[in-house]
Design a protein that fits this description.
661 residues, 2 domains, single chain, binds ligand 6R9, eight-stranded mixed beta sheet, seven-stranded mixed beta sheet, globular, 20 helices, Rossmann fold, GMP Synthetase, Chain A, domain 3, alpha/beta, 30 strands
Length: 661
């Protein structure tokens, strides 16, 4: 064991509580635990009064709301700031032009090549956003139309999102790591009118085609009338006459002005759709609306990141995920801060890339995922020592539970035992952070997301719907509506109700397991549904299974999560072949490639185990509990197997698993 590991292990064994830093507290937005407690009590006793205050303080409204909240969770139907009118791009751009921020950096973009840097001031960003909004208008995009966005992390992505909000069009970003098939099904589900993509993606020093996947998807997307293509990777692409056009050509057209009148939107008008995995096969189009989402993104960015005017805020997520939406784009820009956007990966060209960027731009707030921390941890601490990290004042974590070892490493080597770590629990569906420490106020326990933010009525419920006792594991639930909550699943009110409000009547169910300790701190324990969390990305087991079964040689498949030292979880698939098919390494490679193509590289199974059959109950349900244990090589106790139709199946799988090592 190395010295560092030694230190981490012994510190953890102490079960120590880490007090919040005193330095910086005087300038913090929230300065004391009492302030937190008071706000929390206010938000619980008078939610409407509390949120009205926040919305008034944080958001610029064209017209104030008539009613703060209309809510019936039994339908469910939730409306915040009813009758209020606003425009999101005005809140992120125009309102900063009339104060001192006009010439301040809004976005600092670091491309994958070191010398590729672009800085947009608020004025420049405003002008670009207006121009692109005018381009979209020219293409016939109107308020309410859906625009699909399939782009790498280039500034055009931020511009495209904001341009949609200028017109009141609904954006739906699809992560550029997803396949053509995944893009196609999302576009089809939301009937997007326009697709914005790029020729390719720069990744790990290589140029990877993207437009080719877009073309493949568009073969069966009749709703898409126009495809705008950003030139990024100098890859030759086919441009379809009458449908495809280049971003740079459109933007430089003579009739494209740098002013575009913003649409005044209703608070409850749809702002964006973002697809996420759930327990059933098809991804859910999570719907967020304008007034509530913005209020919540700004409120949480201010409280949790203590965001100030002189901060350089770096959230390392991709804009294709909710974390990017709320904490690269809308939160920081709405508050008039400087946000850093990074196109590359932590490991290229070397594992010190993150720290080099921190020094280069004097990053003050750094928000990343446990999977990245674990990967960097493996590369050794010397990489962190090459660069000056003294500009940092606050660290954050998101995406999955952070294991205490990774927390300690982050605390010791990046935070130098001085900086607060905000471990933020939330979801695509919640719009913004729900449970997290306040950086200068909350005492920290490594591995705990700590306490709910004001307005968040979080609790742990038993199966029977009673509140669990301290330290008893159960279902995390949220009992009151909050402004950032999802307003629906696009096109499917039934799924909205079934997925989130079915287990406990009138209560939001995030499908996460957790416990609350004697101090009221929340400790997250992972998903309770059939979702696998690979590197902080949610993957539905059903999606992976249907991709596998779509292959002609596969009769049946079951995918489960398996513990993985860096990714948190990896995909482990049990595959039963058709009787005519033969097990082979070629077929194995083909199946992995097949899943990659159907969903994307992040869904590729790490392990595929040939299963002559799967353990099933007499009613035909696959016993995933058993498969999860087999995947983890945990053969000690399979619990009650009496309902299995054929218990011998389990022994056979255990033998094969042991051979795999
Ligand atoms: C923001 C985001 C949501 C799921 C969520 C939970 C897990 C996220 C976490 C965390 C423990 C944290 N999760 N943050 N678990 N501690 N700090 O990641 O959204 O992609 O929708 O994933 O991620 O299981 O339910 P999303």
């Amino acid at each position: 064991m190395s010295g560092m590991e030694d230190k981490i292990t012994s510190l953890l064994a102490e079960g120590k509580v880490y007090p919040p830093p005193e330095q910086g507290r005087d300038q913090a937005w929230v300065k004391s635990m009492d302030e937190y407690k008071e706000a929390y009590a206010h938000s619980m006793n008078d939610p409407e009064g509390y949120w009205a205050q926040r919305a008034e303080e944080l958001v610029t409204w064209d017209k104030k709301w008539d009613r703060v909240l209309e809510c019936d969770l039994s339908i469910p139907e939730v409306k915040w700031f009813v009758g209020g009118k606003l425009n999101l791009s005005v809140n992120c751009l125009d309102r900063h032009l009339i104060n001192d921020r006009r010439n301040k950096a809004a976005i600092i973009w670091q491309g994958e090549p070191e010398d590729d840097v672009r800085v947009y001031t608020y004025q420049m960003l405003h002008d670009e956003v207006c121009r692109f909004a005018n381009v979209l208008k020219k293409k016939g995009v109107k308020r309410g139309d859906r625009v699909a966005i399939y782009l790498p992390m280039v500034p055009e992505m931020a511009i495209a999102l904001l341009a949609c909000t200028r017109l009141g069009a609904v954006h739906s970003v699809v992560f550029a790591g997803f396949s053509a098939a995944a893009l196609q099904s999302r576009i089809e589900d939301c009937h997007a009118k326009v697709l914005i993509t790029a020729d390719g993606v720069l990744r790990g020093g290589k140029a990877i085609p993207l437009k080719a996947s877009a073309d493949e998807a568009l073969l069966s997307c009749p709703s898409v009338e126009c495809c705008v293509v950003v030139r990024r990777a100098a890859i030759d692409v086919e441009m379809k006459e009458g449908r495809d056009c280049w971003w740079h050509r459109e933007m430089s057209a003579k009739d494209i002005s740098s002013f575009c009148e913003p649409e005044s939107m209703d608070a409850e008008d749809m702002l964006f759709i973002l697809y996420t995995s759930g327990s059933t096969g098809k991804p859910k189009g999570v719907v967020h609306t304008t007034g509530g989402y913005l209020t919540y993104a700004l409120h949480t960015a201010k409280w949790v990141f203590d965001l100030k005017d002189n901060d350089i805020h770096w959230c390392t997520a991709d804009l294709g995920w909710i974390t990017g939406h709320s904490y690269i784009l809308y939160g920081p820009l709405g508050l008039g801060a400087t946000t850093l956007m990074f196109e590359g990966v932590p490991s290229y060209p070397s594992p010190d890339r993150f720290w080099k960027i921190v020094e280069k731009f004097k990053v003050s707030i750094f928000y990343t995922a446990p999977t990245a921390i674990r990967a960097l941890m493996r590369e050794g601490v010397e990489h962190t020592r090459k660069w000056d990290l003294s500009s940092l004042r606050l660290l954050g974590s998101v995406g999955e539970p952070i294991n205490p070892e990774a927390w300690m490493w982050y605390y010791l080597h990046i935070g130098k035992e001085k900086l607060p770590i905000v471990d933020t629990w939330w979801q695509t569906e919640t719009g913004g952070i729900m449970i997290a420490p306040l950086p200068y106020v909350t005492p920290l326990k490594p591995g705990a997301a700590t306490l709910p933010l004001p307005g968040v009525d979080a609790a742990i419920f038993t199966e029977e719907g009673k509140e669990a006792s301290p330290n008893e594991g159960g279902h995390l639930v949220i009992r009151k509506p909050w402004p950032g909550m999802l307003r629906g699943v696009f096109g499917s009110p039934e799924r909205y109700k079934k997925a989130y409000f079915d287990r406990y009547p009138n209560i939001y169910d995030p499908e996460d397991g957790a416990r609350r300790d004697e101090d009221g701190y929340f400790w997250m324990m992972g998903r309770l549904d059939d979702v696998i969390n690979v590197s902080g990305h949610r993957l539905g087991t059903a999606e992976i299974e249907s991709a596998l079964v779509a292959h002609e040689a596969v009769a049946e498949a079951a995918a489960v999560g398996m513990p993985h030292p860096v990714k948190g979880q990896a995909v482990f698939a049990f595959v039963t072949l058709m009787s005519w098919a033969e097990e082979s390494d070629e077929l194995l490679a083909e199946l992995r490639q097949h899943v990659r193509k159907e969903i994307g590289p992040i869904a590729t199974p790490d392990v595929i185990l040939w299963a002559p059959s799967l353990p099933k109950t007499r009613s035909g349900k696959i016993m995933r509990r058993i498969l999860r244990k087999i995947a983890a090589s945990d053969f000690a106790d399979f619990g009650d197997t009496s309902t299995l139709a054929d218990p011998s199946v389990v022994d056979e799988l255990v033998d094969t698993r042991k051979k795999l090592g």
